[in-house]
Specification:
Low-confidence stretches: none
Bound molecules: tryptophan
Order of helices and strands: EHEHHEHHHHHEHEHHHHH
Number of helices: 14
Number of strands: 5
Strand content: 5-15%
Length: 331
């Protein structure tokens, strides 16, 4: 049996933060040694909600690419590309749209949720409704076996599988049914204790300079009931401790938790341990970011040659898809 194929994408809708690092990128890096991996920057997906102001799009695409490389994705092992450079995704999106009942798209939970959540943008667009279908095209065009994603993406994997079956029912077995590969990771909390998200302005970005990372951690909220240094705290109520659970050793976690409960240490002492551990993870990333940011031609080459490789696979699949439908030429 040939090596199984993995595909995943990330939206360049903002700069990447440490939540994206531990939730997606580190997992992608692990998978690149085991599978034939295709990772892409979903720039069209970013446009589905950020079409009105595209002034930062290019910058965000570059930030995603640089962070992928800095986190350890190796273009020799994994194919890294941009969605918009493989226009076959759009063709498959159109073909899939023919067999997709509107109601299937309307009932995807992220559709209504995001529409009511996002107030500053008009998401009553055709592109936004089609978001999950575009994602289906992304996945099916590589005949991916596995799609590593977070739980929030499960409905999108489900609709992909349904559309896959429907297409195959009409036209024959063109696409294998992909499976989600759930990334088991606790939601990374932001500096204010809510989920880390650019909309909350509570992120530690991979592009933040060290001083800023330190500052952000130092000013993080802690157990709100621990006001004075002598007050005893509850680590479980402190977002700082949530980050310790991700970035610190078990022993360090036990020590800061005990120190917090007994008021043996202050919040700054606890934060210093976290800062040290965050720096250990981020320092090699900062170094590689700086390396790549000085080489714009190399970045362009990596993205273009990855896109070329991806295109070869996509073109191949589309030959089969067109032929199955009866669009494969007259003979
Ligand atoms: N919707 C995904 C997200 O927001 C990004 C994405 C687009 C994706 N196309 C994909 C993920 C295909 C996996 C496979 O995280």
């Amino acid at each position: 049996m040939s090596v199984q194929r993995v595909l995943s994408g990330i939206q360049p809708s903002g700069r990447l933060h440490i939540g994206n690092l531990v939730g997606a990128l580190q997992n992608w890096v692990r998978l690149q040694d085991q599978y034939e991996c295709y990772y892409f920057i979903a720039d069209w997906h970013a446009l589905t909600s950020q079409y009105a102001d595209t002034s930062q799009l290019k910058e965000f695409v570059k930030d995603v690419l640089v962070n992928c490389l800095a986190a350890g994705l190796d273009p020799e092992k994994a194919t890294i590309f941009a969605q918009s450079r493989v226009i076959e995704h759009a063709e498959l999106h159109v073909l899939l749209s023919m067999v997709t009942p509107l109601s299937w798209l309307e009932r995807v939970p992220t559709y209504k949720e995001k529409q009511s959540e996002v107030k500053d943008k008009d998401l009553n667009t055709y592109g936004f409704l089609g978001y999950p279908l575009l994602q289906s095209a992304d996945i099916l065009i590589y005949r991916a076996d596995y799609v590593p994603v977070g739980v929030d993406q499960v409905p999108h994997i489900e609709i992909t599988r349904e559309i896959c079956r429907r297409f195959n029912n009409f036209y024959g077995e063109v696409f294998p049914e992909p499976e989600g590969l759930l990334t088991q990771f606790p939601k990374v909390v932001g500096t204010d204790g809510r989920k880390m998200s650019k909309t909350y302005n509570n992120c530690v970005y991979l592009s933040d300079p060290p001083k800023e990372v330190e500052q952000k951690i130092r000013t993080m909220t802690t157990d709100p009931q621990r006001i004075k240094r002598t007050d005893k705290g509850d680590p479980e109520l402190s977002p700082v401790f949530q980050l310790h659970k991700i970035f610190s050793t078990k022993q360090e976690q036990d020590e800061v938790a005990e120190g917090c409960r007994t008021a043996g240490i202050g919040c700054i002492d606890c934060k210093k341990v976290l800062i040290k551990n965050l720096f250990t993870v981020l320092e090699p990333i900062w170094e590689k970011r700086n390396h790549y940011l000085k080489k714009p031609d190399l970045l362009e080459d990596i993205l273009e040659s990855g896109s070329k490789k991806a295109r070869e696979v996509a073109v191949e699949t589309m030959l089969d898809a067109r032929k199955a439908i009866g669009l494969g030429g007259l003979k």
